[in-house]
Amino acid sequence: MRIGLTSTVPVEIILAAGHQPVDLNNVFVSASSAARQVERAESAGYPRASCAWVKGIYSTILDEGIERVVVVVQGDCSQMQAMVETLNGAGVEFIPFSYPYDRGAERLQRELEALAAALGTDVEAATSIQMSLAPVREKVARLDELTWTRGTVSGWENHLYQVSCSDFWGDVGAFESALDQVLGRAAQKEPVAERARVGLVGVPPIYSDLYEFLDGLGMHVAFNEIQRQFTMTPSLGADLLTQYQRYTYPYDVFARLEDIQVQTLKRGLEGIIHYVQSFCYRQIHDHLLRNALHCPVLTLEGDRPGRLTGRDKLRLEAFCETLEARRSARVGDR
Prior knowledge:
Elements: E1 2-5, H1 11-16, E2 20-23, H2 24-30, H3 34-43, H4 52-64, E3 68-74, H5 80-86, E4 93-98, H6 105-119, H7 123-149, H8 155-163, H9 172-188, E5 196-202, H10 210-216, E6 219-224, H11 225-230, H12 240-246, H13 253-266, E7 271-277, H14 286-292, E8 297-302, H15 310-333
Helix pairs in contact: 2-4, 3-4, 6-12, 7-8, 7-9
């Protein structure tokens, strides 16, 4: 059975149960009809001032005929519970999963066991799947390394393969085969000439052309924060419980800030683009992030799926000019 996901959850459990995971976010944002899916939800009664991702997931569940969905009711989107309730009576079974705010091991272990029981498997079987996925995750970690050490993997490719680790395209073999091809091409390339290195932090962007536009400006996205967390590569070698305890996205913001600070220094990032989604509570974290970082930060807000607006492009161009001016000043000082 295809099991829909509203956010990254322990995919090892779904695979151990013999089901096919489907990240509804990825299906929605990559669809040519993404904008119409948002409008469909609004026609059904969703308010304009609500998250486009939630509206898109609502329509995707109906369009794809998904009958079972694992929904994160704590640790992700505060609007998701209402979305679940609007589909009451639509023949969709929702399986709740929670990330305890305090990362409590006992509570998280109970959540893992409850999810496994609901899907007809157990944590021991999921641990076996975790071990089988380790080589694939290691390859994703290598792809990320090539992105910032040699520049032979683009920011878009980095985003695509990391964000896809939430469900591995529903086919781990096909995902690994495509990943091998990207790594093979990257190994044959010469290191890319140094460009302005930026990090993209916050939830994955809803814009379809952001990476393309940044590349055209001469900016190399050398760090995709949340996407990297989806890969679980920062926790390679840990047991299943610890892996999902260390996953920063669903808990408080402070572990995220620490991770961003470490990666900013490690990767030599010259600036940070903080993507925030309209009507999302995570926008409130923006001032904490700005206070924690010692490099230029541009906050970019997106609402609906589609291309960057003219205003967004002007702001990104100005940000690029700022980074280039700072780089020129450092060269002059030397």
